Amino acid sequence: MAYELYYWPTIQGRGEFVRLALAEAGANYVDVARRGANGVPKMRKLMTSGRLSMPPYAPPFLKSGDLVVSHVANILLYLGGRHGLAPKAEAAKHWLHGLQLTVTDFVSEVHDTHHPLGPTFYYEQQRAAAKRRTDEFWKLRVPKYLGYFEGILKRSGGPFVTGRKLTYVDLSLFQLIEGLRYAFPKRMRRFEKNVPRLLVLRDRVTARPRIKAYLASDKRIAFNEHGIFRRYKALDR
Amino acid sequence: MAYELYYWPTIQGRGEFVRLALAEAGANYVDVARRGANGVPKMRKLMTSGRLSMPPYAPPFLKSGDLVVSHVANILLYLGGRHGLAPKAEAAKHWLHGLQLTVTDFVSEVHDTHHPLGPTFYYEQQRAAAKRRTDEFWKLRVPKYLGYFEGILKRSGGPFVTGRKLTYVDLSLFQLIEGLRYAFPKRMRRFEKNVPRLLVLRDRVTARPRIKAYLASDKRIAFNEHGIFRRYKALDR
Predict the structure, then answer these.
(1) Is the CATH code 3.30.450.40 the one for domain B90-208?
(2) CATH code assigned to A3-82
(3) Per-state percent for chain A, helix, strand, coil, to nearest 5
(4) In which band, very low, low, confident or very high, does the pLDDT at B185 lie, cut at 50, 70 and 90?
(5) Are B235 and B182 in contact (CB under 8 A)?
(6) How many CB pairs under 8 A join A and B?
(7) Domain ranges in chain B?
(8) Cβ-based burial of A42 (10 A; exposed 0-12, middle 13-18, buried ≥19)
(9) Residues on chain A touching B60 (C-beta within 8 angstroms)
(10) Do A116 and B121 touch (CB under 8 A)?
(11) Which residue in chain A is spatially nearest to B135 when comparing CA positions?
């Protein structure tokens, strides 16, 4: 039976981390909200109708038969075990999940660069705060987060976080690099030299046949100014 | 063998969600950074020495023999399975983990009320932005998050999120109520009537013998203005 992925149809957003894992797994899935004109109403209805005994708080969530799994890291924990995208040993499994939760925290800070006053104002209503937060983000947070992952790759010997076998975390790190390159081309160009191992990982992921096919397909939504990674000239210097 | 919890010694912070679960489980644990004068250096050293083959990004993390688990929700996933603080069925286990990850997101938004420009500035350097964000937080985000959990309790029949048996998520919800009451006494007093089931849950958790003993002990650090929940007069109205 096909998985059903529920996520906003016009952005990569948080759903993209799941789409990449589904692509690499070669899994059969329906991107429900992108199917037909009433995809989004269908998604909203499922969340609020009371039909689900364990309703999720927000997209993305994945339906696998009767099972509903919400939150990116939780979905990847579930998929990782089923599709060989994670080690099986308990310690390594929890460690990988912890890495993914660190990715989650970083993604949230990326979002906050353009929405420091929260998701209820438009970017245009918080430009000054966004500028201040973005400067700090590049000065202190990017080096700390990406430096941590670079250190993990140094330790593992690369090209991936656990060594030679790809995991779902590697797919997410690929997405972080792509996203930063899109949103902050100038800043990222200057920063990249500090994380050579992450760049190798990024290239290795891009070269994988299923990922390559996915990225070239219309399943891959283009980056735009409604998702997590947004290109605003004023924030890139 | 005793668990080792690694977290900052002077705040409840994110570590408190773990401490509450350890207390309710009656688990034997050492709060490493609170033990002796060099607790914090010991924690830092463990993180950076290269001794751990799977190093965490940040506290809190839990050591259980050779296993190291980081991030609150990941630690609770681990402890929940071992101490009967979570259901055993796969669907319910993933659902509970999803609920905890929603708590994580909410905690992050609580933190952002006083730090909208990020963790690298002091509150005093971002008062105006904090005020704006806090207003939105109470207008839109608190009703959405707590309304969701109230709905879950309505569905389960209460007093807890899965029904009559307590889980680690219930302990976390107790902590959220306590924290909001501490940080925003005026706003919370006005809001509480909207979430009667959460208040019942809070009272039921408080009455549990091990939690009661924990809260009365010096293991429970008092709320203060260095943690997640901070009482700033300017942000409470």
Answers:
(1) no
(2) 3.40.30.10
(3) 60, 5, 35
(4) very high
(5) no
(6) 133
(7) 90-208
(8) middle
(9) none
(10) no
(11) A117
